[in-house]
Amino acid sequence: MLPNKPKTKILVDGGDPNETLRIKSLIGFVDGQTTNPSLIAKNPEVQRLVASGHRLSSQEEKDEYKKIVQSISPLVGDAGVSIEVFADLDTRAEEMLAQGQEMFSWIPNAYVKYPCTHEGLRAAQMSVQKSIRVNITLCFSQDQAAAVYAATKGSREPVYVSPFVGRLDDHGEDGMDLIKNIKKMYEHGDGHVHVLAASIRGVNHLLYSFALNAELATVPSKVLEEWAAKGFPLPDRNFTYRGVDANDKPLKAIPYKELDLNLPWQSFDIAHELTKKGIQKFVADYESTLRRSA
Ligand code: E4P
Q: Rounded to whole angstroms, how far apart are CA atoms 113 and 83?
């Protein structure tokens, strides 16, 4: 059991309620959960259905997702369960919103995940006006985080933005710099957007997320188990973080940008190749696993 709870809320990054339960007994609590189409495709029950040769209709796919989040929902605390809309590069905001509205009704503690694209932000803007809680995913730049802030201003509920640390690291850039830069930029804001460190690959990412006071971190069970095995260390005053690749070579630093959060969200340069690739990967996992007849 965790002796001292960090200020950063801890979410499980996964799609299996049994895993959430296991982590809950290991740590003593789970603040929330994030899911995505790739993680749902890996859910043991979904895998069993696919392996049995049953071709899932889109309704059945949705029913499975609903069943999974309904099992996870009562296990977690007030950071809720993030449920991601099925969107490809052509999905319009209105369609994402329709999905989001339905997903939001599945459980009392839902956050609807929209991709950090023009249409995703339009959907998020319409959602917060309807008091639907949102989590903007696949964030890879400070401009994108500025646009999330501006598009959701006025939200009565906290809005989450999910910068993907590990995928930036994989790309040769120091993903933790993005967390640091967004936190610094938001010091000039009204606090309505909470930073959810995502795509966490190791205990060091987690500890630096704590040190940077990220409001939330979503963490794969494997990393939480490693953290537990080390005795749940927390960063002390002497904690330092080195962003390095697998060969211990320093990752490219991401410089801070002065951005004005009061500008209209459409004025920020939100295009990012990793956001596009991320959407394509979610679509591929969704289609290849869930729609395949085995
Ligand atoms: C969380 O919301 C994300 O879906 C997740 O952290 C992605 O992590 P990955 O880069 O390991 O797929």
A: 6
Check if 208 has its Cβ closer than 6 Å to any atom of ligand 1. Answer: no
In terms of phi and psi (left: phi > 0; alpha: psi -120 to 50; beta: otherwise), the region of 197 is: beta
State pLDDT tens for residues 147-184: 999 999 999 999 999 999 999 999 999 999 999 999 99
Q: Is 230 exposed, middle or buried (0-12, 13-18, 19+ CB in 10 A)?
A: exposed
121 within 8 A of 150, measured Cβ to Cβ = no
Structure tokens at 70: 């309904």
Residue nearest to atom 11 of ligand 1 (CA): 199
Cα-to-centroid distance, 234 and ligand 1 (Å): 22
5-39 pLDDT, tens digit per residue, is 999 999 999 999 999 999 999 999 999 999 998 89
In terms of DSSP H, where are the helices of the chain?
Answer: 17-27, 37-41, 44-51, 58-72, 93-104, 118-129, 142-151, 165-170, 175-186, 203-211, 221-229, 273-285
- State how far the Cα of 134 lies from the Cα of 145, in Å rounded to an integer: 14
CA 109 – CA 101 distance, rounded (Å): 13
